[in-house]
Specification:
The protein folds into 2 domains: 196 residues, no CATH class; 54 residues, no CATH class. 34% of the residues lie in helices and 27% in strands. It is built from 10 helices and 15 strands. The strands form 3 sheets. Strands 1, 6, 7, 12, 13, 14 and 15 form a 7-stranded antiparallel beta sheet that branches. The two termini are 29 Å apart.
Length: 328
């Protein structure tokens, strides 16, 4: 079955999909993905989130769910084929091999496997719903959706000079060497920052060892992507995709997740020629922002597809996932 799903997202925390890094005025800075475009006859740049990256997370979430349920361990080649679609040198396959793998393994069928199996699922980039243009004096536009966050790192061993019971220095010389080497490195970094950091003296007194910046998409930004299929999905594949979209609502996107970035809420709708229907919706959980509240509003057709997928999963074995044994 063919379909079109619209995925609206809203950033609940900063979103940072790193594209590059550089030292700017002595400060290590991460830059995010941005596009240049012409709108209303003016050139500008704005941040976005890669559809290929989003599709990759959906791919891994589905693969992880299936492999855990099947309860098997995969060889590295099969792991890559199921979780990433690559990691192998398989080329175009005979039609009978392609058909057999599509029948056995809905992951490879929907997402593709190396150059051997072409995936069916298409995902567009997550584009801003409103770019919130600002303009420089020379007429160049830039989006106010791009923000900058800063964060610091500190080494307690250098701050206090004491040794935690969890640190296994061999002897006193080992400890002194650590302090000396790291102190030299941090002093060089501090000197590089000093010209630009307004609070350089405060940083020095606090013994902050690293001051960093990262570009991000700001909190509250709306981003939209579309899902489509270039070939008909089987009911099993369709149900698997819907289950994967549920799993996606619980995942952080982009980088710096350990700092809390990348939490988004979702409103996923099925788009027909003349109507739009909500299918999955997630909202911010005030008690635990990392576990959003998710609701589903499936049609009977979608429920039947999910049941077909779960029935397949009940009977799936390692044979369904070890597709390297079939590829030629």
């Amino acid at each position: 079955m063919k379909f079109s799903y619209k995925v609206n997202t809203k950033t609940e925390t900063e979103l940072c999909q790193t594209e590059d890094s550089a030292t700017v005025n002595g400060v290590p800075t991460l830059s995010i993905k941005k596009k240049e475009c012409i709108e209303d006859g003016k050139i500008g740049s704005y941040p976005y989130y890669s559809g290929n990256s989003w599709r990759g997370i959906l791919h891994r979430e589905i693969a992880n769910y299936i492999v855990e349920r099947v309860g098997c361990k995969l060889k590295p080649t099969d792991f890559h084929l199921n979780f990433a679609g690559g990691g192998s040198n398989y080329q175009l396959q005979p039609i009978e091999v392609v058909e057999k793998i599509r029948e056995l393994n809905p992951i490879a069928s929907m997402f593709g496997a190396s150059l051997a199996i072409e995936g069916k699922l298409m995902v567009s980039n997550l584009e801003p719903q409103n770019k919130f243009w600002k303009e420089t004096k020379d007429g160049y536009r830039y989006s106010a959706l791009k923000g900058v966050v800063s964060y610091t790192k500190k080494d307690d061993l250098l701050v206090t000079g004491s040794v935690s019971p969890y640190v296994g220095f061999v002897d006193a010389e080992d400890r002194e060497e650590y302090l000396e080497v790291n102190a030299d490195i941090q002093e060089a970094r501090a000197n590089a920052r000093q010209k630009e950091a307004k609070d350089a003296e405060k940083i020095k007194k606090a013994n902050i060892q690293s001051f960093n910046k990262a570009e991000c998409i700001i909190v509250g930004a709306g981003l939209t992507t579309y899902l489509g299929a270039k070939e008909e999905l089987t009911p099993i594949e369709y149900g698997m995709m819907l289950k994967g979209l549920e799993l996606m609502t619980k995942q952080q996107l982009g980088g710096l997740k350990n700092k809390g970035y990348g939490v988004v809420s979702y409103s996923i709708t099925k788009e027909d020629e003349s109507s739009s229907r909500t299918v999955i919706e997630s909202s911010k959980n005030e008690e635990n922002i990392y576990n959003p509240n998710t609701e589903t509003f499936y049609s009977n057709e979608e429920k039947e597809a999910i049941k077909a997928f779960e029935d397949w999963l009940e009977n799936a074995t390692a044979e369904n996932l070890e597709i390297s044994k079939i590829l030629v």
